[in-house]
Amino acid sequence: MVIVVATRKITITLPEEALERLQALARAEGLPLSTYFRRLAEHRIRIEDGLAAMREWEAEYGSFTPDELERAAARIEQAERQRLANEALAS
Question: Rounded distance, CA 88 to CA 91, Å?
Answer without folding.
Answer: 5
